[in-house]
Design brief:
With 64 residues, the protein is of the alpha/beta class. The protein has helices at 14-25, 43-57, and strands at residues 4-10, 29-36, 62-63. The protein contains 2 helices and 3 strands; from the N terminus they run βαβαβ.
């Protein structure tokens, strides 16, 4: 199966965390990068959330 490479821009709070988990579970997708952006909180918090989330769900990709 050919995987579709994706880059995800998000502010990983509750809703985007769920979306990232779903994307990571799909065998046809290859998450190449997670680009955190400021949302309800600043970039410092969303970037830390994205790093922790990538580690938690086992996604080996560029974050930032």
């Amino acid at each position: 199966m050919n995987k579709r490479p994706v880059v995800i821009d998000c502010d990983p709070g509750v809703d985007d965390t769920l979306a990232l988990c779903l994307a990571a579970s799909r065998p046809e997708l290859e998450i190449r990068a997670i680009n955190p952006v400021a949302g309800n909180v600043g970039y410092e918090s969303t970037s830390q959330n994205a790093l922790r989330l990538a580690d938690l769900i086992g996604v080996d990709c560029r974050v930032g």
